[in-house]
Design brief:
This protein has nine helices and 13 strands. It has 324 residues and is of the alpha/beta class. It is globular and about 65 Å long.
Length: 324
């Protein structure tokens, strides 16, 4: 084989090699383009329930009136707006607001309970189970962190007329609704407050969230149960979060009852947002801990009766728990 023939053969091999490289690059470009369709997808579905490995979505806009079960490898929560492609969740729209808590046993891992909600209805029984202000305050912190309007709903007021324990929240600017499923007290008021909004019911196990949902919806929407007679603790009748639509335009997410509510990472500003009466006070030092510092506006307001001692104690307790 002559030198010219060898060179021609080498040039041919080089050309084939470059052609092969070009083909590989074209295939990779096609795959990349195919794997990134999120920008062109429209989030026209709303997550109304979450199942293991999947979720139930309802169509919105032109897709309204349709519901279906879809698979998902993306973490979603009721209230999320998503795009569905080939019966799978392809992408999730940015969340406007979130209600979240830390995972039980892992304070550093966040679990989103509901997304894009307007109102958090903190459901608390005045008795059976007893009123737990510490849990209410933690929900208020979560609402302030997530940008959500809180409402405190006292249930079972027919069992105990003494609701003074909740007065501190009304004084702090939190709307308080007194409800009784048995005699219908407060149901119309709560229904009116929720009209046209996306809300979430949350609270301790056994406080009557599912019964309250059924009463507000004026039909059976959720399974209910009684408080355990031996332990006095609530029973979990709701096992997963689901979204329910009401005739007045309200959409309500009913969540499982809990006994503890971990807050995870919270900033000092987010904590103060749940205690507006404390945030409104001016202190001499910017890093004031509101304990014994001179010129503390919070301590002065406390002595003047402008801040309830129960709220002050709760603020210090949560602040200490969070290491702030």
């Amino acid at each position: 084989m002559t030198r010219q023939e060898k060179r021609s053969l080498g040039d041919l091999r080089a050309m084939n090699r470059h052609q092969r490289i070009d083909e590989i690059l074209v295939v990779k470009a096609r795959k990349k383009k195919k794997a990134e369709p999120d920008e062109k997808l429209e989030c026209d579905s709303l997550v109304i329930g979450v199942t293991p490995g999947g979720c139930i979505v309802a169509g919105i806009g032109e897709q309204a009136g349709t519901t279906r079960l879809c698979h998902t490898k993306i973490s979603v929560a009721p209230g999320d707006k998503v795009a569905i492609r080939h019966e799978k969740v392809a992408c999730v729209a940015p969340r406007r607001t979130t209600l979240s808590r830390s995972e039980p046993g892992n304070a550093n891992r966040e679990r989103v309970i509901a997304a894009n909600i307007d109102i958090l209805v903190i459901v608390a029984a005045i008795t059976d189970p007893p009123f737990r202000p510490a849990l209410v305050d933690r929900y208020l912190v979560a609402a302030a962190r997530g940008g959500i309007q809180p409402i405190l709903c006292l249930t079972k007021t027919d069992l105990d007329a003494d609701t003074a324990a909740a007065d501190v929240y009304r004084d702090a600017g939190v709307p308080v609704v007194h409800c009784s499923i048995k005699n219908g007290t407060g149901i119309d008021e709560l229904r009116g407050l929720l009209a046209g909004s996306l809300a979430v019911f949350a609270g301790h196990s056994g406080v009557g969230k599912s019964s309250l949902l059924n009463a507000v919806a004026e039909e059976e929407r959720a399974r209910t149960g009684a408080v355990g007679g031996v332990s006095g603790k609530g029973r979990h009748t709701t096992t997963s979060s689901k979204l329910h639509e009401l005739p007045n335009g309200a959409r309500i997410i009913d969540t499982p009852g809990i006994r503890e509510f971990g807050l995870g990472a919270v900033t000092p500003d987010e904590l103060r947002g749940a205690f507006p009466e404390i945030a409104a006070c001016s202190c001499r030092f910017r890093d004031c801990q509101h304990k014994t510092e001179p010129g503390c506006g919070v301590l002065a307001a406390l002595e003047a009766g402008e801040i309830a001692r129960a709220r002050y104690a709760s603020y210090l307790r949560i602040s200490q728990d969070l290491g702030l």
